[in-house]
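Person: I keep going back and forth on a fold encoding question. Show me how you would write down a chain together with its backbone fold. Please set it down just below, with no commentary around it:
Helper:
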Amino acid sequence: MLLDTRVRQVEGLSGQKVRIAVENSHGEQTIEGTDLLVATGRTANTQEIGLERAGIELDARGYIKVNERLETTAPGVWAMGDCAGSPLFTHVAFDDFRVVRDNLNGGSRTTRDRLVPFCMFTDPELARVGLNETEAKARGIAYRLAKMPMAGVLRAVVIGETRGFVKMLVDAESDRILGFTAFGAEASEMMAAVQTAMLGGLPYTVLRDAIFTHPTVAEGLVFLLANVPARGMRHGSSSVASA
């Protein structure tokens, strides 16, 4: 759904059948489904709890201001997790704990350049790590795009869950993996395999040429990456229209 979409009418009962009439730059559209999810977002619960008396400053969004070592503006006071403005995930809060723990024990660990994965455990799952197409375009990064439906993943066929797609962004002039998105059954597990390769600085060709167990979702990477365009065939630039 586009950002300029306006909801005109909602009919039905969530959990059974829902019919929504919307309007956007493409005109009017009717969307049907079984469930309606309303997400209003979250704000920091840091107001009027005395932080200013302790010398702890807040940022413009209301989160506790920290540096890359997760130190606050008050000496000897650290913050981690949601209150520190970290990405709102349990796995990120756990890594924040490791940063603070190591630094309290004489280490020098930071949050700089963390590769943070995103997973939404809907049905089917949505998983992403690294850049998506919108982010790559915004940063002016030219990329090559490989994309295929989940029906091309043999594990998805075996379990009868072929809804969705997988796609990867590869640097236009090298074989570096820029980002990966999967929407489908066990998408989070496939994403973890790509994330591991990205953390190790491996080119996409290592995954393409790997022998994965059959049938696993990771095996689908072999078929996806067989379709990476040749170097010079760019998305995010004037040479090739973006998908």
Summary: The longest strand covers residues 6-13. Strands lie at 6-13, 17-24, 27-33, 118-120, 125-130, 143-149, 165-171, 177-184. Residues 197 and 206 are 8 Å apart (CA to CA). The domain at 118-225 is CATH 3.30.390.30 (Enolase-like; domain 1).
